[in-house]
Amino acid sequence: MSFPLPVRPLRSARLLLGPEPVGEPGPCDLSAAEIIEIAEAAGVRGRGGAGFPLAVKLRSVASAPGSARYVIANGEEGEPASVKDRFLLRERPELVLRGLALAARAVGADRAYAYVSDPAAARRLAEARGGDLAGPVAPVHIVRVRPGYVAGEETAVVRAVAGGPALPTVKPPRPWQAGLRGAPTLVSNAETLAQLALAVRLGPEEYRGMGTPESTGTFLVTLSGAGRAACLYEVPYGIPMRELVTAHMGTAAGVTGMLAGGFAGGVLPASGLDLPLTHAAFGAAGSTLGCGAFVLLAGDCPVGVAAEVAAFFDRENAGQCGPCVKGTAGVAEVLAGLTAGTATADDVARLERWAAALAGRGNCATPDAVTVLVGSLFRHHRDLVGAHVDAVCERCAASQVTADTKFRISLEDT
């Protein structure tokens, strides 16, 4: 294992296993309908954010008007606290390419792309591409892009692959309707495609043997924070967050909260440890599993954490429309004022009002993430927000807010 972070299974290991078994059915051995039926029967859901059913996306692209089709493996990991896609692309590129080939077969794609910013991932994909995992179905082209938070948004992916900037476009149309060169295009996260390859390898029944009926299989979780070294885990859906944290730290007693699902899931209190790792449970808590990245907090002030994340969003948004340029900046300014002890009660009222107004606005999903972030403060930490108006927070005063974010996990650029 050459990956620079510890990688461990919890209860099970599927994605963390070695290369593909010799002699298993390849993409050309299955019809398009069979591949889609397996994805549906196995309950494969997206691992990049919203957990959307993969079979629905496959059918949408396959049945869209037009003769040309494209598929893109999205390996641009813009979430600062996530490393899962870089692990798969560096250490299990064959699995991602097999899933890409299966998706290409399922939708009848003319060409496939692997979209990455990590140099090591690009090299490993190029080496693995020399085999027969994807070539017989559709040629695979590797596209390198500069890393960025919005660069992984699906319309930004399509725009960059076409030679433009990695910035989101107005929706609709979505890529499955009109994507690359105006043709129906499947944009799927690297882990999602690896999961499709697993579902075909294992079969729907065995695949569903892990997880829950609604959230099937296993997924990769990046766990960091609380003074411990970051680690990548493979876990089945449905296990309690507390079990994962205890396995990581030896005890969950010192954990006072967490950033959930990457930066898009808001700041949850310690009670979030009692949630099972399912889309439904985190959604009901006003959060999300997102990309499976969790930053554990141990005594950190939730307001200071939110200010750090908002400053990152303000720097990393697409800068193409008012909700990002002005709305995100306004939220970041008020949160920074709260940490500095200069914000007023009127500022807090505006913060809550602005956050609600940002939802669903703009080309990229940054305003939605800001809404969840601020919403989590008022849902779980309202009294603490008010306390920052009345007095300077000692915890915030001891921690400088930076747009580069102290929550980022860095891997060597080799």
From TrEMBL:
Every copy of the NADH-ubiquinone oxidoreductase 51kDa subunit iron-sulphur binding domain together lies at: 303-348
Q: Return any one Pfam family short name.
A: Complex1_51K
Q: Which domain of life is it from?
A: Bacteria
Q: Which UniProt keywords apply?
A: 4Fe-4S, Iron, Iron-sulfur, Metal-binding
**InterPro entries named in the record:** Nuo51_FMN-bd, Nuo51_FMN-bd_sf, Nuop51_4Fe4S-bd, Nuop51_4Fe4S-bd_sf
Q: Which family does it belong to?
A: Belongs to the complex I 51 kDa subunit family.
PANTHER family documented for this protein: NADH-QUINONE OXIDOREDUCTASE SUBUNIT F (PTHR43578:SF3)
Q: What is this protein called?
A: NADH-ubiquinone oxidoreductase-F iron-sulfur binding region domain-containing protein
Organism, per UniProt?
Answer: Microtetraspora malaysiensis
